[in-house]
Specification:
The complex is a heterodimer of chains A (1132) and B (154).
Chain A: H1 2-17, H2 32-42, H3 46-65, H4 71-86, H5 95-104, H6 107-120, H7 129-139, H8 144-156, H9 163-172, H10 179-195, H11 204-211, H12 216-232, H13 241-252, E1 261-262, E2 265-266, H14 268-282, H15 286-302, H16 308-323, H17 328-343, H18 347-360, H19 365-370, H20 372-379, H21 384-396, H22 403-416, H23 420-437, H24 441-455, H25 462-473, H26 478-497, H27 505-518, H28 527-539, H29 545-558, H30 561-575, H31 581-595, H32 597-603, H33 623-631, H34 640-651, H35 694-698, E3 711-712, E4 715-716, H36 722-730, H37 732-744, H38 759-771, H39 778-783, H40 803-811, H41 819-825, H42 832-860, H43 866-873, H44 892-898, E5 914-918, E6 922-930, E7 935-943, E8 950-957, E9 961-965, E10 979-988, E11 994-1004, E12 1010-1020, E13 1025-1027, H45 1032-1041, E14 1044-1051, H46 1059-1071, E15 1074-1079, E16 1082-1089, E17 1093-1102, E18 1105-1112, H47 1117-1131
Helix pairs in contact in A: 3-4, 4-5, 4-6, 5-6, 6-8, 7-8, 7-9, 8-10, 9-10, 10-12, 11-12, 12-14, 13-14, 13-15, 14-15, 14-16, 15-16, 16-17, 16-18, 17-18, 18-21, 20-38, 21-22, 22-23, 22-24, 23-24, 24-26, 26-27, 27-29, 28-29, 28-30, 29-31, 30-31, 36-42, 37-42, 46-47
Chain B: E1 2-9, E2 14-19, H1 25-40, E3 49-52, E4 55-62, E5 65-71, H2 77-95, H3 100-105, H4 107-117, E6 118-119, E7 122-123, H5 128-140, H6 145-150
Classes of the chains: A alpha+beta (1132), B alpha+beta (154).
């Protein structure tokens, strides 16, 4: 009885409180919620709060399940439940009642019911099914508020499978007379599109109607859907560009009702949405971009008020301008805008400015130079997020000259940073920079030590792995490798002698491995000492069992001699009874091997590293599985580090550099555009943004000779003569560099200023000059095609078939650093500017020399005539193929030499026989012969003297080619006036635009005097290209599997009725490409590089040019091939 | 698209939570905990933008209350900062000089205002007046479609 009374009493205030009108929203002191809230605030401990809430929930539970509770009371109860849930207490018993409330309540109660449902339930919650009927009913209601509520709740939580049930009703609402309903319906459809795109596909035309709605609000809402759809398929909506531009023009011009203004800026949300759409439409599309240039300019001009919202518009504008086809005027304005952001005293703007700079700097490093002092200030900013962003920017401009300063700054940040995610990311970057640009061993090891100790156990596992790999595989100089290993050993021994307890597990594992493998390099340290140091690690409490097994492995390698064996014995006894099976296994191994040194030497030979272990690192046995999975729509594999990098990249501004083919030597700065071409998108849902970026970014060695600069600041560069182009790029630099320096810091010692600079300023300037060292010369350095000096140039190994090894191969381009680089490396901070002035002209002259020489050799290069290629293309009928080299009128010698061609080659067409060199007694000439599956090089050695030649030795070599000798004949002696022939078979090791064979002939004349002659023979990569006959389906599968790509526009041969076909035919004739299929304006072409390295090409006629996209598993191959395509078309 | 909006006090008490894309309960708890830890540790006059995993975080403090959102990567931080500001303006208009207590005791109203302003993580209605009218209509409840049609458009 008393219970009932109590209940009624407690229910009373809540009944009373219901009268409080919602409009007068001040808190009612008597409400139960009010009591609850006040009760909670009075409590002091978490425990008391918990008790109170549990009591409250218990009473709520009792009341909601009572049949006597009215919907009004239920509404009040529900509000209280929501409050309890918000505090983190679960009240699942109330979920069903929330649905009931939404079903049965009057409008006001229903609203609370819907709110509770959307807060309580997840999209996958099964109770949601019970809501479907209610929503259906409300959508059909004549009460607008109910309709609105239903639309709100479906956009909030709605089971995916039930969308078809309500779709017709939502669609119907697009024609509703009330705009708020239309607007909500559009947004609900947008939500459906996001969660289940297939189900709303067929109503696309209705979206168009929404776009044309007379209410700007409905139109704005429809843009969300358009943004999404255009993102997926920009080509399908190009026709709408001018409409979007017109809308934006009207908005910017203030044609919308005042209602849409926000702080007197016309419809900023709409403007930004439109700018975002335009940037998607204008990307890589000159025609479309031109339509929007004017309105972008207008937007920039109009947004001048000093308010966040105008900055938001400006920022979006800048993003758009850098994404679409460039226009110099706009770029200049955008750059100025970025400058304003960076220099702004408002910290938010500064942050965004840095972000924008980070992306733009890849195209325009001098923009960073302009703001160097600001960047320095940001580096010491008290706000960590600004610091972090600055480091991101510095990461993009790191080179061999400023790496130590930048890495030091990064490590400094890492030591303070507490956020795991940032640490993981930054540690990866430091490791990348360290390996790429390390100035010396000591620095490298110390940096990596810090990376390992700071990165701890959260860092990506590929960092220690690749570090160990570098140590074990070594690089070019054997002595350097030994020094590096020795240094590592020294450093680790001293670390272990210190306090190894605080080192992370991963680091301990690295240490154990290195000591096990290389501590023998330290002859003065007894292995037993090292073994004891390692044994200490085993006794540490926090060593994980994984670390322990690494330690045991290392001990197994080291146990030798009396003391070592005894330690080993002790340890193995302890662990051979371990519960951990792996540890037990290791302990057993240790036990046996320490006792049997002979066996140990066999099992663990010293100093061989990994070289002798036959591991199929390309995992070729999985190829079948992988291609099957790819065909079934799986995403191509990306290493984790790169995935994170991509994530980080896409996180911020997605400003793609407009010069995709512009060579850049900065680390990971080339952003590859990977949307699958329209033709191929059919093969599966994965458009290629899932493929890697780091391959291109990783290879810092870009060669200009294959890559033309197509896009420049002034827009598209019409193809010019290479010399002219290079000069255009190059010439301004000597003029600019000192000026830039001055611009960036006016008080620099270079520019005489009357005011003495304070000490602090000077410090900053020093920092600036060390940070931005080498940056101003960046573009020219890479234009010269010189790779950055890279210390740890990984060894190339084996055939570059898998992508992981190919990356290393591309890194291993060997090219001596130019004098310019050396000059720059001298690292004289203050004379930096003057140095640049000195070095620049030199560089220019060197460059022009390079260019002239390459032009010169081009003419000398032996090439096939068109007919030759045709013939070898139709290889089966080769019997009647008579090789008649053209131009042989000039050189009657050729004819005679032709007869010396080896018999097995006589049936094939051969290139013109070109003389290589002559001396008193020898005439050397050579030609190459294209066979279906190989390329043969034939060297003719004609003895023009009257005496015989003895002990002749011919050596040939090439950086890019594999050369194997074919002819076995004895040819030590060449009789007077006779010809010796050497026959080699060539295959490509590493693609390059032109490949060169160098050689030397040494011989003795009869009198015994030794002579030698050097020669070189150049041949175009095109000679190694053969057609690849594949079907369209095979092509599709291969396309998705290849990771290296390049894109470029080529001239279209438009003299025929079908430009695409005739252009492709020219390529087919000249380069022996295989045209797989031509559909409409698109064509796919395939070829392979001898022996079996495929390269695929996708062509599309667009805006009077042929935009081609090449992909291959071999790095550099696409770049080289595109060069030859260009040439072939130019010559046509 | 805005992924979530959280309102919490300086003492770390959650006042409002809105999730525009699905999060599991565990993720929600983690996000709330991390956001409070990150945002409350910020000193005044520091940058309003943060990075959390792959989300951009934009927060702003109004009196004792922090407004904190998580955004997609391509979203414009400054614009969202203004979205927060607009929301505060709307609350202000509805409650009349809004304070934390208004939101604590009438949090369901704050949710309703939010629903009229943002839908599915996108801005639904940018006009302050329209939101107010929509709310008023919802509050007075009685109008039907016929009445709407007879009324002049606002």
């Amino acid at each position: 009885m008393s219970d009932v009374v109590e209940k009624t009493l407690t229910a009373l205030p809540s009944l009373l409180s219901l009268d409080s009108q919602p409009g007068s929203a001040k808190l009612s002191s008597t409400s139960k919620l009010g009591n609850l809230i006040r009760g909670i605030t009075e409590l002091t401990s978490k425990h008391e709060e918990e008790k109170l809430i549990q009591r409250e929930l218990l009473s709520i539970k009792e009341q909601v399940s009572s049949p006597n509770t009215t919907m009004r009371q239920m509404k009040e109860l529900m509000v209280r439940t929501i409050y309890c849930e918000m505090l983190g207490y679960e009240a699942s018993f109330s979920y069903i009642h929330a649905i009931k409330l939404a079903q049965q309540g009057t409008v006001l109660e229903k609203r609370v019911g819907y709110l509770a449902v959307s807060l309580f339930l997840n999209e996958s919650h099964e109770l949601l099914l019970l809501l479907v009927n209610t929503v259906l009913k409300d959508l059909q209601s004549t009460n607008l508020i109910e309709v609105c509520m239903a639309l709100t709740v479906v956009s909030q939580v709605f089971p995916k499978d039930m969308i078809p049930a309500i779709l017709p009703l939502v669609e119907e609402k697009l024609n509703h007379p009330k705009e708020i309903i239309r607007r909500k319906a559009v947004l609900a459809l947008y939500k459906f599109y996001l969660i289940a795109p297939n189900q709303v596909q067929y109503i696309h035309n209705k979206f168009r109607k929404a776009l044309c709605d007379k209410d700007p609000g409905v139109m704005t809402a429809s843009l969300h859907i358009y943004l999404q759809m255009i993102q997926e398929n920009p080509d399908g909506y190009k026709d709408l560009t001018s409409s979007f531009v017109t809308i934006l023009k009207q908005v910017v011009g203030g044609k919308l009702p005042m209602d849409f203004n926000y702080h007197s800026v016309p419809a900023p949300w709409l403007q930004i949405q439109l700018l975002r759409i335009l940037s998607l439409l204008g990307k890589n599309d000159q025609g479309t971009s031109e339509i929007m240039h004017e309105v972008l300019d207008e937007s920039l001009r109009r947004a001048e008020m000093n308010h966040n919202i105008t900055y938001a518009i400006l920022y979006e504008c800048v993003k758009c301008i850098y994404t679409i086809h460039p226009k110099s005027e706009l770029l200049e304005k955008a750059a100025k805008c970025i400058g304003n952001f960076v220099l702004s005293p408002k910290i938010n703007l500064k942050y965004l400015g840095l972000k924008a700079l980070t992306y733009v700097v890849q195209q325009d490093p001098k923009l960073a130079l302009q703001h160097q002092m600001t960047i320095i200030e940001c580096l010491d900013h008290s706000d960590l997020i600004i610091k972090r962003e600055t480091l991101e920017l510095l990461f993009r401009i790191t080179n061999a000259q400023n790496v130590t300063v930048i890495v030091e700054k990064m490590l400094e940040f890492l030591r303070m940073n507490k956020d795991d995610h940032t640490t993981t990311d930054l540690v990866g970057k430091v490791a990348e920079l360290a390996e790429k640009y390390a100035p010396d061993n000591e620095w490298f090891i110390e940096t990596m030590n810090t990376v390992f100790s700071v990165g701890g156990d959260t860092m990506q596992p590929d960092i220690p792995n690749s570090f160990l790999k570098l140590l074990s595989e070594g690089f070019d100089s054997v002595e350097e490798v030994r020094k590096l290993r020795l240094f590592a050993v020294n450093s680790y021994i001293s670390l272990l002698r210190g306090d190894p307890g605080k080192l992370p597990q991963r680091f301990l594992q690295v240490i154990s491995w290195v000591l096990g493998e290389y501590s023998h390099l330290r002859e003065d340290v007894d292995p037993a000492v090292v073994t004891r140091l390692l044994a200490k690690l085993l006794d540490m409490k926090n060593s994980s069992s994984e670390t322990k097994s690494w330690v045991l492995m290392a001990m197994t390698k080291l146990c030798e001699g009396g003391a070592g064996v005894s330690v080993a014995k002790e340890v193995s006894e302890t662990y051979s009874s371990s519960l951990d099976t792996v540890l037990r296994q290791r302990a057993q191994e240790l036990q046996y091997l320490s006792q049997d040194s002979e066996l140990r030497a066999k099992v663990l030979p010293r100093g061989v590293g990994l070289e002798h272990v036959e591991v199929d690192s390309s995992l070729s046995f999985l190829d079948g599985f992988v291609s099957e999975a790819l065909a079934a729509g799986a995403a191509p594999y990306k290493p984790p580090h790169q995935r994170q990098e991509e994530l980080a990249r896409s996180k911020a501004l997605s400003l793609e550099p407009y010069g995709l083919s512009l060579p850049m030597s900065m680390s990971s700065c080339s952003i590859t555009d990977r949307q699958s071409p329209t033709l191929l998108s059919m093969s599966s849902g994965l458009s290629g943004d899932s493929t890697d970026l780091s391959h291109k970014g990783g290879s810092t060695t870009l060669k200009l000779d294959g890559v033309k600069r197509v896009w420049g600041k002034e827009g598209y560069l019409v193809q010019r003569e290479p010399v002219e182009e290079a000069a255009r790029v190059e010439v301004p630099s000597p003029l600019r560099s000192p000026g830039q320096q001055g611009e960036g810091d006016t008080s620099h010692s270079q520019t005489p200023t009357p005011t003495p600079t304070s000490e602090c300023d000077q410090e900053k300037q020093q920092l600036a000059s060390s940070l931005f060292l080498g940056l101003s010369s960046q573009s020219s350095v890479c234009l010269m095609g010189k790779p950055e000096p890279q210390r740890f140039r990984r060894k190339a190994k084996g055939e570059a078939t898998s992508s992981s090894t190919s990356e290393q191969t591309s890194n291993s381009l060997v090219s001596p650093p130019s004098t310019v680089d050396n000059l720059l490396c001298n690292n004289l901070l203050d004379s930096n500017a003057s140095q640049l002035v000195v070095s620049s002209p030199e560089r220019t002259s060197q460059l022009s020399q390079d260019l002239t020489s390459s032009n010169g050799t081009w003419d000398r290069e032996s090439e096939f005539t068109n007919s030759d290629i045709k013939e070898s293309d139709t290889a089966p009928i080769r019997d009647n193929c008579v090789a008649v080299p053209h131009q042989d009128k000039d050189r009657p010698k050729d004819l005679s030499l032709t007869s010396h061609l080896p018999a097995e080659l006589s049936g094939f067409s051969h290139s013109e026989i070109s003389p290589l060199c002559t001396d008193r007694s020898l005439d050397l000439s050579a030609c190459h012969v294209q066979k279906e599956d190989s390329l043969a090089l034939v060297v003719f050695i004609a003895n023009s003297s009257d005496s015989d030649i003895q002990q002749m030795l011919l050596q040939v070599d090439s950086e890019e080619l594999e050369i194997s000798r074919v002819s076995e004949g004895e040819m030590e002696k060449v009789c007077s006036h006779s010809v010796a022939v050497c026959h080699y078979s060539l295959s490509v090791k590493r693609p390059s635009v032109h490949v060169e064979v160098t050689g030397m002939v040494s011989y003795q004349l009869l009198d015994g005097t030794p002579h030698s002659v050097n020669f070189s023979y150049k041949l175009p990569l095109a000679s190694f290209i053969r057609p690849l006959k594949v079907s369209t389906e095979e092509y599709g599968t291969m396309w998705l599997a290849f990771s290296h790509d390049t894109k470029q526009n080529l001239t279209l041969i438009s003299d025929g009725p079908e430009p695409l076909t005739s252009t492709l035919n020219v390529l087919k004739e000249k380069l022996q490409l295989h045209v797989v299929e031509i559909i409409g304006v698109e064509g796919i072409v395939a070829c392979r590089l001898l022996q079996d390295q495929p390269c695929l090409m996708h062509c599309r006629v667009h805006a009077g040019a042929l935009s081609v996209w090449l992909r291959s598993p071999v790095p550099d191959l696409p770049d080289c091939l595109i060069y030859h395509c260009q040439r072939a078309l130019q010559e046509h | 698209m805005i992924r979530f909006l959280l309102l919490f006090s300086r003492q770390g008490k959650l006042r409002l939570q809105k999730w525009f894309t699905p999060f599991t309960d565990r993720e929600k708890k983690k996000v709330i905990r991390d956001m409070m830890a990150m945002v409350l540790a910020r000193t005044p006059r520091s940058c309003n933008f943060l990075q959390w995993r792959d989300l951009k975080i934009v927060y702003k403090r109004y009196a004792s209350l922090y407004f904190c959102t998580g955004l997609d990567d391509q979203d414009n931080e400054l614009l969202v900062l203004e979205v927060l500001h607009r929301y505060v303006e709307l609350l202000d208009k509805y409650f009349g000089n809004v304070c934390e207590l208004d939101i604590i005791f009438n949090f369901e109203k704050a949710y309703f205002i939010l629903d009229e302003f943002l839908m599915g993580g996108e801005v639904l209605e940018t006009s302050k007046a329209s939101v107010a009218v929509a709310l008023e209509e919802a509050d007075t409840l009685q109008e039907t479609m016929e009445e709407y049609l007879n009324k002049p458009a606002y």
